[in-house]
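Lab meeting, item 3. Inverse folding demo.
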């Protein structure tokens, strides 16, 4: 089990109570793990029985109808849309709309960088705190950062030991 930094206080007044609290934490962790496993099992079952299996025929039919409408529109474009770009039907609309997209090659990014076209390049920037940990406090202060050192309490449950003692 990973180390835990508690943020609420449940009073413990002796080493014996601390040991009982650790045993209870181990039991709670086991129960939560079982509940999580059951949740995941049921979620997987629901995905399979509701989201995937029953919807597959509907998704297939939707794709066939969509492809059929597109083929119909393309093959009858001149007759259906002599002057207008949209045809209104009782249950919806058919039509053509101009759209554009950008197609790039594997070399596009490299060429943009070489040309200095920084506005066309997405760059996610964030402070790398792992690097800053290696800096001196004076270097950190220069960039309005500081090292915060705290002596925080933690605990780690011996799950296997608690499980053996309860068996």
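The presenter then showed the designed sequence:
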């Amino acid at each position: 089990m990973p180390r835990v930094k508690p943020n609420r206080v449940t009073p413990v007044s002796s080493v014996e109570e601390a040991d009982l609290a650790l045993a209870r934490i181990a039991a709670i962790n086991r129960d939560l793990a079982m509940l999580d496993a059951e949740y995941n099992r049921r979620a997987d079952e629901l995905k399979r029985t509701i989201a995937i299996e029953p919807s597959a025929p509907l998704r297939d039919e939707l794709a066939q109808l969509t492809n059929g409408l597109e083929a119909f529109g393309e093959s009858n474009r001149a007759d259906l849309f002599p002057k207008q770009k949209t045809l209104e039907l009782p249950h919806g609309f058919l039509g053509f709309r101009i759209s554009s997209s950008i197609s790039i090659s594997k070399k596009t990014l490299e060429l943009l960088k070489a040309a200095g076209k920084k506005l066309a390049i997405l760059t996610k920037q964030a402070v790398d705190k792992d690097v800053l940990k290696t800096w001196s406090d004076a270097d950190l202060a220069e960039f309005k950062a500081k090292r915060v050192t705290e002596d925080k309490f933690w605990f780690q449950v011996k799950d296997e030991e608690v499980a053996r003692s309860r068996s």
